[in-house]
Amino acid sequence: MSLRPSTIRARLAGLLTAALAAVALTAVEPAPQAAQAAACTGTSGVTVVVDYAALGGGIQVGCAPGDPATGIAALQGAGFTVTGTQRWGLAFVCRINGKPTAATDPCVNTPPATAYWSYWHAPHGGPWSYSSSGAASYNPAPGSVEGWSFGAGAAPGITAP
After folding, report:
1. What distances in angstroms separate CA 9 from CA 6, 17, 21, one per listed residue?
2. For strand 45-51 and strand 145-151, is the pairing parallel, antiparallel, or unpaired?
3. What is the Cα–Cα distance from 105 to 102, expressed in whole angstroms?
4. Peptide bond preceding 100: is omega within 30 degrees of 0, i.e. cis?
5. How far is it, in rounded angstroms, from Cα 83 to Cα 97?
6. Angle at Cα 81 formed by Cα 77 and Cα 82, nearest 5°?
7. pLDDT for 36 beyond 80
8. Residue 145 per-residue DSSP state
9. pLDDT score for 32
10. 15-32: pLDDT as tens digits
């Protein structure tokens, strides 16, 4: 059976569309702009606070300049490296700047409820609110503050800068 050229083109177009959709679903966030190791000023970007206290570390603050499209983009734009799980990708943040270590969590599935990166939002100087959206789908506004804290869901240990 011979296929007509128009049928072949239609099938190739369908395959190409499916392939592009698959790539879009697995794409990594775009490369961030240069980060600042301090809180953003005004609405110049999104301030990101990462609390490592439960891992024996301190608290770091960075600025993701501009208008990052997602909480993940803000985290990366503020200069933090992010590792998701093997099963879910960046839908579940497993490591920030290599913490916890691979010996502690191999990052295969969802982290346990007692040892995960919780995600928070706050206005400058305001109270933290636990995020009801995942960081890959939340769009933080310039001038806002994003928070990450490792443990069993406690808010970052400082007031939103």
Report:
1. 5, 12, 18
2. parallel
3. 5
4. yes
5. 8
6. 100
7. no
8. E
9. 41
10. 344 433 333 333 333 444
41-82 pLDDT per residue, tens: 999 999 999 999 999 889 999 999 999 999 999 999 999 999
Rounded-to-integer distance, Cα 37 and Cα 139, Å? 21
Tell me the DSSP string of 70-120: SHHHHHHHTT--EEEETTTEEEEEEEETTBS-TTT---SSPPPTTSEEEEE
CB 117 within 8 A of CB 149: yes
Strand bridging mode 89-96 / 59-65 = unpaired
32-64 as b/e: b if 16+ CB within 10 A? beebbeebbeeebbbbbbbbbebeeeeebbbbb
Sign of the torsion formed by the C-alpha atoms of 75, 81, 84 and 90: positive
- DSSP state letter for 59: E
Find out whether 81 and 107 touch, Cβ atoms under 8 Å. no
Count of positions (residues) in the chain:
161
CB-based contacts of 134, cutoff 8 Å, min separation 6: 71, 91, 119
Q: CA torsion, points 22, 18, 30, 66, in degrees to nearest 10?
A: -120
Average pLDDT value over all residues in the chain: 84
